[in-house]
Amino acid sequence: MRRKKALIVYYTQTGQLKSIVDSVCNSLQEEFDFTFEELKPTPAFPFPWTGMSFYQAFPESVQETPCELEPFAFDPDDDFDLIILAYQVWYLSPSIPFTAFLQSPGARVMKDKPVITILGCRNMWIMAQQRVKKRIHDLGGKLVGNIVLADKHHNLVSVVTIVHWMLKGEKYGKGIYSTLFPVAGISERDIKDAQNFGPIIRDAFVNNKLESLQDDLLEKGAIHIKPVLMTVEKRGFMMFKPWSKFVLKKGGAGNPAREGRLKMFRAYLFTVIYLVSPIGGAIIWLIHKINYRKIQKLVYYYSHVK
Fold first, then answer.
1. Backbone angles phi, psi at 64, to 5 degrees
2. pTM score, two decimals?
3. What total number of domains does the chain contain?
């Protein structure tokens, strides 16, 4: 029998997402031959990010403005049995390189094919996945599974550690910082445990049970949604839209003329995170208690792929 073929498209700056993909796919090697396609933007986004470049990526991320990518090594017309899309979340949105792939001619490779998404993120991913889900559908792909690995530390703590990692390039930190804050990103334990999803995916293909794949993945903990963060994220994204348009009025990506507005956004962002969100989170928690059934329906919806 012909071995199945899987295309894995991903973009990573730190290598963390590639580690997640390797863990998930480790036990699939008996059934699949893999083609890995690492997305390479031109010019490359910096890592660590320097100066305002970290915030310069904000408007284009939210507005899903694509960047240039190096030519793909895979053949978009090849007949793959499975497409795996692994991506990061930037500003509650798919990363710019991943957005560029979804809008490229090469994305037609998903037409009439089962697709699994794998996310490696801080803790907010729902708004990004909703837009990715729509693009997959519009391209003729069939989303059959979604796996999300996130930083499990407190929201206010993970903001500090991820920004430190992105701007300093230090996952573990140094000196007093390393004693006050945990290791940035997704835990090594969670990355290792992601290998448990591989056999579930393999069995779904072997037994032709793709329709129930997401339910089986959920039983193994593929997604954990915190209702309060879900609501905070939805409201945050509503504010990101007008902010991104406000910045874009001063020019395109990298334009120094918009740095003033980006500094305003930076001040707004950290004010909301550290002053407004703790109080808002408590209010949202109380509202959720009153609307428990409605919130649980939303959690169910965002956990599934249809």
1. 55, 45
2. 0.94
3. 2
